[in-house]
Amino acid sequence: MKPPSLHSDKSKVALRRAIIHAIPEYYAWPEAEQERYRLNASRKEYFHIRQTLLKILFDINTNSAEQLDDAMSEFNDEQYLLLNSTLLPFQGIGENNFFLNEHLADGETLLNFSTLGDYARDDHCFQQQARKREDPAYEVRPYRGDLYPCWARLNIGGEFNYATLFSLAAWLHDILDETGTGRLDELIPHQYVEGKNHGKQVGQGTIFDFQVDASGKESQLDELQHRYFKYMRMRYEHLLDRFDKESKQRVYLQPEQQGSEPHTNFIFSDKRALDAVRFRHFHKDCQRITGEIAELDGLANREQQAAVEFLDRNCHDILDNFNPSVVRLRRKSKIILADNVLDDFL
Questions:
Q1: Total Cβ atoms within 10 A of residue 299
Q2: Residues 153 and 68 both lie in one domain
């Protein structure tokens, strides 16, 4: 399904009717006041807007937030695409209707941040302080343009796009994670099976208990995974330092089609690139500093090759020399999924 243009009559009329139903005085306000109000809309107002859109777009009647959530839980990707693309002008800002689909602190909206760099610095500070509170011995790291993958929505040339925003170091870290997952299974074949407590109800949640089965090589697999996790962490820190020093100020645009969903990865080389991109002019600013996608391919290939060599070398060492009876101390943990938690990911 091709996503509807944000200027299509059906989408524009549907959204206008929904807004008037929820906020009758909205179109009498100046544009700046409309924007501030949109980004601070209450859950009740959002419910009424989505309620009206479900009726217009899909002929679905709902009388409560619970009924609306139940109806949307049955949506397929194409229905979500139509709803999200229609809603975007109400949610986003600037010439691309840019919407950062991430949680912000209470009282904050995208209007608190002029550039993507402002947001990245704020998020970095929050994450570092959270780790420090959890572990007083943690050494707070300086900001080097690190941006953990975050989701966004925007229109590009009048067409709706989902997007993921990465720092280049974080994008390569994801590549290493994917590469390592595949190579680990080749070196020590394994699968995850339900543990004895999986599915048990605890309070308002359910225990998520899966155990690894590596045909007797569970300890060796665990040691290899542990070493590779440390390797990925080391590479991430190294790449952050390297790209910060190189300071190329590049963003790499990587369009891809995920089923029926148009999607673009925006991969930012360093903090100067993040600082150069304003939320109000997101795509135009990205185009101004766009780098060659071939640079990404070269970086990824080199990191993948080095990772495979690391895993192969360490796997041989573990199989030859590791004592599986030596168990590494670790904190026990229990994963409990709150009832209906997966609904938030739809």
A1: 17
A2: no
